[in-house]
Amino acid sequence: MKQPIRLVTRRSPPAWQAFVVTTLALMVAIATRGLFLGWPNAAGISATYFPAYILATLFGGARWGWASLIVSLGLGLLTPSTFPNEVSFAGIFIVFAISGATTVMVSSALRETVLRLDEAHSDQKSARQALVEAEARLRLAQEVGGVGLWDWDLETDEVFWSPMVYRNLALDPATPPSYAAIIASAHPDDHARLRQALAEIRSGRIEDLEFRVLGADGHTRWLLSRGDTLRAPDGRPLRALGVNIDITDRRRAFELVQESEARFRALADSAPILMWVSLPGGRREFANRAYVEFLGAPYEQAINFDWRLRLHPDDLDRILAEQMAGETSRQMFVLEARYLRADGAWRWVRSVSQPRRGPDGEFLGFIGIGYDITDAKQAEADLKRINELLETRVREALDERDKAEAALSHAQRLEAVGQLTGGVAHDFNNLLTVIIGALDMMQRRPDDTARRGDMIDAALGAARRGERLTQQLLAFSRRQTLKPEPVKVDAAVLDAEPLLRRAVGEAVNLTFAPNAAEAVAMIDPGQLQAALMNLVVNARDAVNHGGAIRVETDVCRIDLDGPPEIPPGRYVRVCVHDTGVGMDAETMAHVFEPFFTTKGVGKGTGLGLSQVYGFARQSGGGVTLDSAPGKGASVRLHLPLSEALPSEAVQEPVATASSPGLRVLLVEDDAEVAAMVAALLEEQGHHVTHADGVEAAEGHLEAGLEVGLLLTDLIMPGGRTGVDLARRAVELRPGLPVLLASGYTGDTLAAAEGAPWPLLRKPFSGDALAKAIADLISPSPRPL
To answer: What are the φ/ψ torsions at residue 405 (nearest 5 degrees)?
Structure first.
């Protein structure tokens, strides 16, 4: 649409335009007079000039109005008068001049008024535009930030909500704004808190409130509501204004970090070795339960403890020098010394400290582990004493040897685990580096939402790998119950691969060739791993640097003309080949005898191949051996094929609560573990009473505490176990359901397996705990 031509403009027109307009206006006035009064009198003074004055003033301003007046007056003086003789020309001229001046002044004032009105209109339009833009920016900010605005008139009870409030509350925009609608959309567990918060708002008090909203899709979202109150001069609350913000992502990230930290501490506390994390200055910032128990001090005191107070005087100077050199180098270093344990016993501890670095490579301190090597030191000392007495005191030495062999039999698995120490320490250091690095990144950059998810996934993945590694070590060290069961042999061999590689090291080429994918044998998987470890370690000792070991499996048939000690039938064959020095016929004739060894003094017990032979025979199969000097050796285990199917891991449905309404007596000596388990139980709807030991738990039972379930750790301080407590509990309360729990049970496990109560392995999740309770409790739970 074309813009209209404006007579009055905010900016003064150019002089030439004003001159043209003024001249044209005067010419029109003269032409009008000449047309009606005759052309000789056209320029005389007349009312026809007044429109010209008005036009010139409005268009060009007052100066052009005055100019047009002066020009018309001059023309009037030069033009003969047309007025009658009795009329005074001078009077007419004066009246005309006054009227013209008045017209110019009025027109000038009118022009200023129009300009002011135009300017005010322009400012008003700009203000409206700015308001529209500001509102648009506000709406965009609310949508991006998930921020909804609310306004509650406390006197009229009228409520206003912005569109984001409806979106955050998952409500239809047509719903009238009311706090009853908020209650209806909120999670039922938050109704009471919301009603209390609304009552406080009415009284003029507003506190930050986090609550949950149930969407139409069934998903739960978290909202944060905060605001302030406008008050009258007398302090009476008039209006409450505030915002609600969607904090679902922040809340979930916080919960994941908490879960990750809990998993990490549970993993570290379940380890039977000392673990710690230190800062660049040497101060500890984390220690696990074994570390604290070794010192026998509270946690805060333990992480600030001066270990020089526990060092043996003979080791003090040496360890201080080695530690200073190791920390200065900022490289991995190993210390080995005697330390005074909390019970007053001196124990040999070997510690391995690995440098810890941040995402940018900066040095953050050390991650360390320490493990007790007292038994190995004692065995070494016993062997040395036996060798010294062997020549002069044969008879006495034989008795001492029997004792030493008993000690070596106990330490045999420690010797094999010693082969794994470096690799296991390396793996744990890597896992801890990932976990601590991810948590450190999230702590330093809490607002980096793009990276937070990756950091959480990395930390959780590392924690779960550490859990699997711990389970492998427990299985290999016989800290778990091992019984014959249907086992896929290939899977068991591949499960043992990481441990075997750590035992062999990098100087020997170890390969695997599984060719019996579906073959199942009824065997003890732990004993199979132990047999493989013995065979692979023997093969490693027989080959030179650069040699090769090959582990392979297949299915074969033994006929009547086969080895006489192996019954005919179909077998899974597990072969270990090496390219080592081999054996002659005399050595092969004795190789499976107990205590027979070709290794040097102190380098072997002679029990490894005996264990392999016994395992194969007890499993219903046998062992064959092929070897020749300089040709290497091949040991073949024949394990009978089984038609039984191996148990598969079944994905249990997610359990939200198990038998809600139970009064659970939780017996756990570790305060942090107890707090975590109590939280899991309470989340599932149970009521928890905690006891930190057997005596405290018995006190509750004898005092008449009504208990629907006893959940007790297996190992307890004071010499009595969770099994002892369970027996006493069922004597006091016949029929009381009991659930045992343990992570590292040691020799106490035998008592637990013989007990009539189920055992829940640590670490466990909330779902696993809920399922264990649901499986234990009858359909009619005991009341509170």
So the answer is: -65, -35
Angle at 653 between CA 647 and CA 658, to 5 degrees: 110
* Amino acid identity, position 74: G
Structure token pair of residue 334? 């190993």
Q: How far apart are CA 86 and CA 88, in angstroms?
A: 6
Q: What is the DSSP letter of 307?
A: G
The DSSP annotation for 325-348 comes to: HHHHHTS-EEEEEEEE-TTS-EEE
pTM: 0.33
- Alpha helix segments (H runs only) across 146-285: 163-168, 179-185, 191-202, 248-270
Quickly count: other Cβ atoms within 10 Å of residue 682's Cβ: 12
Whether 25 contacts 55, CB under 8 Å: yes
Q: Please give the single-letter amino acid code of residue 401.
A: R
| Closest to 287 measured CA to CA, from 311, 310, 263, 304 | 304
Close Cβ partners of 406 (under 8 Å, ≥ 6 residues apart): none
Residues 6+ apart with CB under 8 A from 248: 221, 222
349: which residues sit within 8 A by CB, 6+ positions away?
Answer: 274, 336, 337, 338, 339, 370, 371, 372, 373
The closest alpha carbon to 212, from 186, 176, 247, 249, belongs to 186
**Buried-exposed string 451-473: b where 16+ CB fall within 10 A, e elsewhere:** ebeebbebbbebbebbbebbebb
Looking at residues 424-435, what average pLDDT do you find? 62
CA distances, 171 to each of 159, 160, 184, 222, 566 (Å): 15, 14, 10, 15, 76
**E strand spans, 607-728:** 622-627, 633-640, 663-667, 687-691, 709-713
144 vs 128 pLDDT, higher one: 128
* pLDDT attached to residue 335: 92
| Strand, coil or helix: 294 | helix
Tracing tokens 């017209």 back to the chain, one arrives at: 103
Strands 569-578 and 633-640: antiparallel
- Tokens at residue 700, please? 């509750």
**Helix or strand holding residue 419 (H, E):** helix 394-444
Strands 237-246, 220-231: pairing is antiparallel
Residue (of 525, 523, 481) closest to 751 by Cα position: 481
Interior angle at CA 780, CA 778 and CA 784, nearest 5: 110
C-alpha 278/C-alpha 303 separation (Å) is: 9
Pick the closest to residue 104 from 144, 67, 54, 156 (CA basis): 54
Q: Exposed, middle or buried by CB within 10 Å (0-12, 13-18, 19+), for 243?
A: buried
Whole-angstrom distance, CA of residue 729 vs CA of residue 720: 13
Amino acid code (one letter) for 552: E
Beta-bridge partner residues of 241: 151, 228
What's the rounded Cα separation, in Å, for the pair 741 and 681?
14
Q: Which of 225, 228, 184 is nearest to 208 (CA)?
A: 225
Q: How far is the C-alpha of 94 from the C-alpha of 601, rounded, in Å?
A: 145
Which residue type sits at 96? F
The two structure tokens encoding residue 731 = 């004597």
Q: What is the pLDDT of residues 263-311, one digit of tens each?
A: 877 877 888 888 889 898 888 888 889 899 898 889 888 888 888 889 9
Tokens of 248: 């679902």
Burial of 432 (0-12, 13-18, 19+ CB in 10 A): buried
Residue 389 main-chain phi, psi, to 5 deg: -90, -5
Select from 523, 467, 462, 469 the least CA-distant residue to 492: 523
Contact 12, 19 (CB under 8 A): no
Report the pLDDT value the prediction gives residue 752, as an integer from 0 to 100.
64
- Three-state DSSP class for residue 593: coil
In single-letter form, the type of residue at position 305 comes to F
Interatomic CA distance for residues 578 and 119, integer angstroms: 100
Q: How many CB atoms lie within 10 A of CB 647?
A: 9
| Residue 604 confidence class, pLDDT cut points 50, 70, 90 | very low
Nearest alpha carbon to residue 59 among 111, 23, 4, 119: 111
Residues present in the chain in total? 784
Residue with tokens 């017996």: 667
